[in-house]
Structures are given as C-alpha cells and as structure tokens.
Design a protein that fits this description.
InterPro entries: Beta-barrel_RND_2, MdtA-like_BSH, MdtA-like_C, MdtA-like_HH, RND_pump_MFP. This protein is an alpha+beta fold. The chain has five helices and 24 strands. It is elongated and about 195 Å long.
Length: 413
Amino acid sequence: MNTSAELLKELRIDRKAATPPPSSPRRGRWIGLAILIVLLLAGIGWFVFGRQRAIEVTTAPVVAIQQGSASSSVLDASGYVVARRMATVSAKITGKVREVMIEEGMRVEEGQVMATLDPIDANAQRSLSASQLEAARSQLAGLQAQVAQANAEAGRLQTLVGQQLVSRSQYDLAISQRDSLRAQLRTAERNTKVANDALAIADLGVDNNTVRAPFSGVVTAKAAQPGEIVSPLSAGGGFTRTGIGTIVDMESLEIEVDVGESFIGRVQPKMPVEATLNAYPDWKIPAEVIAIIPTADRGKATVKVRVALKVKDPRIVPEMGVRVSFLEAAQPARAAAPKGVRVPAAAIVERDQKTVAFVVGDDSHVEQRAVVAGATLNTDRQVNQGLSAGEVVVLDPPADLHDGSKVVEKQQQ
C-alpha cells in the first residue's frame, strides 16, 4: 500500500515547480542596452565600410565664349539718358480745362488731341464774327444792286443827252451818283473781307481751346485736371497750371556725359562708345560720340559730350543713369565667332559610345551629361549643347566615376 501511494505521488504534477520565476526589471534593462549597442555597432560598421567613398577628382569651371573682342577703353565716365526732343504741352490761351485725354505712359501721335478747354467765350466771339460777316455781305449785295441800277440809268441818260432830250446837268448828276455808289461798293467789299478775316480769327480762337500733340511721343507727365485754369504765362499766379502734360520723343534719346577737362582730349567725334545702364548692368549698348559741346563748366571743370545710342529699346527711358566707356577703335567684325561655352578638353570623355561630361552638383554628386562638342580651342574644347556657363566639370574622369558618384576636390600637393 505504501508503495502504491508513493507511486501515485510521483505521477502528480507539481504546478508550482512548472511556473517560471518572474524576471527582474534590472535584467530587462540590460537586454535592451545590449540590443542598442549591437545596432550602434552595426551603424558604425556601415558608415565605415558600407557607405560610398568620395572619389578625388580635379574640376574646372565652364566658361562662356566671348563673342568678338572689345576694343580697349581709353576713358570711362558717367552720365544720364536725356531726350533731345521733349515738350511740356500747353494751351495758347488762358482757359478752364474741360477734358484731359492723356495718361502717363500713353503714346500719342502728332496732332492728336490731348485736352480741351471750355470754349464758351470763343464760341460767342465766333458767333458775333459770323453775324458781322452776314451783315457785311447783305450790305454788299444791296450796293451791288444799286450800282447796277445806276449804271443802267447813266447809260440811258447818255443816249438821251446825245439826242438832246435831257439836260447835260441831269446826266452829270446820274454819273455822280453812280460813282458814289461804286465807291460805297468798294468799301462794302473791303468790310466784307474784314468780317471774313475776323471770322477766321474767331475760328482760330475756338481751335485754341483744343490742345494737340506737337509731335509723336510718350506722355511722361500729366499736369492738369478738368476744372483747373491753365495759362501759358501763368497769369493767375501760383495756382494756375502752365501745361497740360509732358511728352517725350523716344526716338531722340541720347546720352549726355560730363568729361573732366583733363581727359577731354581723349574724346573725338564719331568715337565708338560702349554704354551700360545702371538698371541693366549686364547689357552693353553700342553707341557713338555725336559732338563735344564747345564750352566748359567752370564750377565742375567738365565739358559736356553728346553720345548717340545705336539701339532703340523701350527699356531705355529719360533720366536713367548710365556708365560709358570711350573705346580706342571700333570693334572688329568677325565672320564666324564661336558660340556656346568652352571647357578644358580633358573634361570631355566617351562613355557607352556617347560624348559626355561629368557636372559637379551642389551636393558634391556628379551628373553624367551628354554634350555636343565643337571645335578645339587650343587646350579647350567648344561645347555647343549640354553645358552652361558657370557650371563645374570633372577633368580626366576616372573609369569608376558614374552618374550619381560623390566626389571631392583633390588636394594640391
């Protein structure tokens, strides 16, 4: 019995022994720290052995090919763009503005109406002149009829006098009346002409209320508004406008430069000039000396020089600042100036039967770019397509250099 009971106890499962002991918090922290150390070592290993190594290369910039050769400058000076033909347009008479038809920047043609004045007074004067002309013409017509009658009467009396049917004194009286009427007719004709001229003057007075552009140009200033009084003489004082607006003939733009007396001997008429506007410093404008003004400014010790612009462009406007370079000689004409950019010949290589160059980007990675190579320029090579001025290319690209490779500038020994 005891033996059977002991055997049954051995077959019983001990649940307390099967339950694993609880793990301590300190042991979990050690396991996490070990995992972190393994990951850190793996990252360091990839950084040292797995990342892409930068390839040492030599680089050179891409340079734009200059179109022609500029003449050397013998003198540099500064000046301003001015309009040779500019006018502040005003009315010929004093009057009140009725309508203004211009705005700044608007182009006007010669004879175009810019503004109108109130024509009440001028219209009244014209009506009076027209009435006076009609009265003079009526008087002229009456005298013409009287003269015709007097001529006929004198003719009849002359016949009767010859037949001794009327007295000689009666005939002489008819002749006298006829001559008097003829004199009155001539006076009436002159009065009619005077009245006609007065009407023409009145028409001019009406037309003077219309302000027209004296030449074609661009409006640069609008000086008057409807309701204001304008006068060419400013008779109304400081509150009276003297003009409607200012127009400039953009075809007459030129440059005025003040050259020091010490250097004026270097400037000659017809001398080539290269002008650069302060607003567009990269734009070289060809120009030519028109004339040297034969007088000096004693205060500034300078002589004024007029320079003609050979290019007409809407970007050139009056009062712009400009720098000019007086050139030694005219630029020589070249039949076939090379175009595109130039790079060292060592930057052009053949890869996969293509002519390519490796361009270094801002992130030090290279881009393989197909190019169209041109003529050989000494140790350089002309590139017509594929590269732009200012980019950086790799010289003598290694065989293992490919698109996307990271490069570093080789240190000079």
